[in-house]
Amino acid sequence: MRYSLIGLLFIWVIGYSCRKGSSSEISTPEESNLSGEELAKIHCSGCHIFPDPKSLPKAIWLNGVLPKMALRLGQGEFMLEMMNFSNEEMMAIMNSGVYPQNPVMAKADWEKILKYYGENAPDSLIQNEILSTKELLGFSLKEQEIDANEIVLTQFDSTKNQTFIGTSIKSTVYSLSSNGNLIDSIKTKSPVVDIKYHKNLGKVTLEVGILNPSDLSEGRLLAGNKVLIDKLHRPVHMVLADLNGDNYEDFIISNFGNLTGNLTWYDGKTFKGNILNNEPGARVVYQVDFDKDGKKDILALMTQGREAIVLFRNTGNGEFEMKTLMSFPSYFGSSYFEVKDLDFDGDLDFVYTNGDNADLSITKKPFHGVRIYLNERNGEFKEKYFYPINGASKVIAEDFDNDKDFDLAVISFFPDTKRNEAFLYFEGQANLKFEVSSKKKVSSHKWLTMDAGDFDKDGDKDIILGAFNRELRKKAGVKSVVILENLLMK
């Protein structure tokens, strides 16, 4: 339901009166004597790395990114923005404090920023050359019969020797046996995005609530039909771990959210939330002893405006200290990472993808791709490998061919269809070198989900892919779920 501008204005005034008191006085800062560049470095760098104008085309800055940035500085068309939301979501956004009640800067200063980006941004970005790939021969293609086109979960489960497929439109979870036969299907209130087995509670499922960008909290954590936690803010990932030392598994949940969100761990007995990071964009979490002090820490990828890999160092008794290990520009499109000792030197490194291309800056970005960052043991991580992939969305690092090094499987949800890059396999060589392969009928289509595991129970790791694409079958005749069966042990 949408409301008239007058109705929205009334709700806005009432909402702010409740939050701020009865005063309707609006303070407007005086124009500064600073340049547009100086103002951008002050106001933009307050939330994330300073965005270089040369990183995006001029039209993207002026028509996509900066109009949204204006709202966070008390500039722009706030009321028109609010008309995009229902009353409930609009009030949630206003109560969050994301948008200030009063302007943060003078309008003349904001216009300086607009002029700075307009004068210094390029008309277009120079794109990467199309890299050649050979046909991947080490995996055979098996198309899975699932009556759905919008897949949000593909997950191998070694505990129960099953494979889970989660769909969006019908909100159904399918369970498959190791030969691909359907075991059962269960309807859910909203799409299931993660499934784990709790030592005490059994099978637990994480429902996203509202799949599209939203600031309403409709996600849930369930054990069977029992709701353990509700009102989660678009959760996308969970980890089970005993964080407070009571010998009972707790939940670390990535509440991705939208304008707001958080990374929170919930007590496994009381389900009380303990916020680790009160910002949106938590995508994936690992529990590892990063600092080698005998206590497991938390590593998380944050992927919205303040893009970063963050360490939460375990100080005991369920308490953590946050430290940012790596930061990325707000337009970088961080999408996934894995934590592995990639160079076998005893410390943990990162293999990372950036390729989110669905927000404010939709254009082909030559800096999208897969990267390897090695741990320099001095608190620094150095980029040692980059391969460009438009829209890279997830990477899995495993020794798929059992030759004692890491191989990479990478998918893209926003590929350039001319580049055959929607699925790429990187066969590991010495010194972090890779031979890159693609797979006919697979590498030219969009994939949203991927997992690796021994699907057919023959002793090697297979790969499963899921597509979120309403037009996939109509245009290509390709199933929404495919399994790449590893031929190593055949």
Summarize the structure in words.
The chain has 490 residues and is of the alpha+beta class. The chain is built from 7 helices and 29 strands. It has helices at 5-20, 36-43, 58-72, 78-82, 87-96, 107-120, 472-476, and strands spanning 134-135, 139-144, 151-157, 162-167, 172-176, 182-187, 192-198, 202-207, 219-223, 226-232, 235-241, 250-255, 262-266, 273-277, 282-288, 297-302, 308-316, 319-327, 334-340, 349-354, 369-375, 381-388, 392-398, 407-412, 423-428, 434-438, 449-453, 462-466, 481-486. It is globular, with a radius of gyration of 23 Å.
Keyword list:
490 residues; alpha+beta; five-stranded mixed sheet; four-stranded antiparallel sheet; globular
Topology readout:
Layout: H1 5-20, H2 36-43, H3 58-72, H4 78-82, H5 87-96, H6 107-120, E1 134-135, E2 139-144, E3 151-157, E4 162-167, E5 172-176, E6 182-187, E7 192-198, E8 202-207, E9 219-223, E10 226-232, E11 235-241, E12 250-255, E13 262-266, E14 273-277, E15 282-288, E16 297-302, E17 308-316, E18 319-327, E19 334-340, E20 349-354, E21 369-375, E22 381-388, E23 392-398, E24 407-412, E25 423-428, E26 434-438, E27 449-453, E28 462-466, H7 472-476, E29 481-486
Parallel strand pairs: 1-26
Antiparallel strand pairs: 2-29, 3-4, 4-5, 5-6, 7-8, 8-9, 9-10, 11-12, 12-13, 13-14, 15-16, 16-17, 17-18, 19-20, 20-21, 21-22, 23-24, 24-25, 25-26, 27-28, 28-29
Helix pairs in contact: 1-5, 2-6, 3-6
